[in-house]
Design brief:
By secondary structure, this protein is mainly beta. It folds into 2 domains: 2-121, Immunoglobulin-like, CATH 2.60.40.10; 127-239, Immunoglobulins (Immunoglobulin-like). It has helices spanning 234-239, 249-276; strands spanning 2-5, 12-20, 23-24, 29-38, 44-51, 58-60, 66-72, 77-86, 93-104, 110-121, 127-131, 137-138, 141-151, 157-164, 170-172, 177-183, 187-197, 204-214, 220-232. A 5-stranded antiparallel β-sheet has the order 1-2-4-8-6, with no helix packed on it. A 5-stranded mixed β-sheet has the order 3-10-9-5-7, with no helix packed on it. A hairpin with a 5-residue loop joins strand 18 and strand 19 (220-232). The longest helix is centred in the last third of the chain and has 28 residues, at 249-276.
Length: 277
């Protein structure tokens, strides 16, 4: 449970708010406990506590958004329990909910006041990394490969950094730390790295990756991931059909055309000589 303390107290006031769970996933039910205290020097009657949900993405769940109490005696406290559900399409963030409190004093005068409580909508970020399917690294050459970062969670993430570590057999020609920025839920981004692969590099290289990012509440996350790099000699890549073998057809055609032209010129000269004779 999360405890939220309010900074102000009046005669009839909210003194504490408990929410369970602390952070609500879109579509999830949350229980909210609101503690009301009477510090008047007399009892109050017909106490009414109502959540104003018109402009927030929450709805009552199997209960009302309004609670009643016949009497709250001088100096007493009372908890009011509400069950709410965050609407499935709710964006992550902190939502302020107005609370209307009305009551009658000892002279039967009705008073109404408004206070605020807050509920945080959030879900654990879920980032996945992978290599593009077309990635082929050739030994003894400069190569480019692309890392794909997918946000498969319900919440957006921001300030995303991708950091790769040194590995044997590969020299990074581009910066190993790359800033990505924001990645919305159900979206992705790609980062390209330029590398030189040593001629004696292993055929399988485990590349450690660190992701740094923040969620909607600015909570920081650091996660370690891995991708597997496959390296090939040029001959291996050609035999597996990963890269095309060099084609000599244009050279052959060009050679035939040149020879044909030379033969044509020779024959033309011979005809001219024969004509003159």
């Amino acid at each position: 449970m999360a405890l939220f303390s309010l900074n102000f107290i009046s005669a009839i006031s909210i003194t504490d708010v408990l929410s369970s769970p602390e952070e609500v996933v879109p579509g999830q039910v949350v229980e909210v406990f609101i503690e009301i205290e009477n510090i008047f020097e007399y009892d109050v009657t017909n106490l009414n506590v109502k959540l104003k949900l018109e402009n927030v993405p929450f709805a009552p769940y199997q209960s009302s958004s309004e609670k009643f109490l016949d009497e709250l005696e001088e100096g007493d406290e009372k908890d009011f329990k509400f069950r709410l559900i965050a609407l499935p399409e709710t964006d992550t963030g902190i939502y302020k909910i107005p609370v209307e409190i009305s009551y009658e004093d000892e002279e039967k005068n009705v008073s109404t006041k408004y206070e605020l409580i807050s509920i945080t909508v959030n879900s654990k970020p879920e980032l996945k990394v992978s290599l593009e399917d077309s990635t082929v690294l050739i030994k003894g050459k400069e190569n480019v490969f692309s890392v794909k970062i997918v946000n498969s969670g319900l919440a957006d993430v921001k300030f995303v950094y991708l950091i790769v570590d040194n590995v044997k057999g590969i020299k990074f020609l581009s910066e190993k730390e790359q800033y990505i920025g924001d990645i919305n839920s159900d979206d992705f981004d790609n980062i390209e790295y330029e590398v030189y692969v040593n001629a004696d590099a292993s055929g399988t290289i485990n590349l450690p990756i660190v992701l740094k990012f923040k969620d909607a509440t600015n909570k920081e996350f650091i996660e370690s991931k891995n991708v597997i790099l496959k390296t090939y000699s040029l001959k291996e890549a050609q035999s597996l059909g990963l890269v095309q073998k060099p084609s000599y057809t244009p050279y052959i055609i060009g050679g035939v055309l040149v020879l044909g032209y030379i033969f044509y010129r020779i024959m033309k000269k011979r005809k001219l000589k024969a004509t003159r004779n």
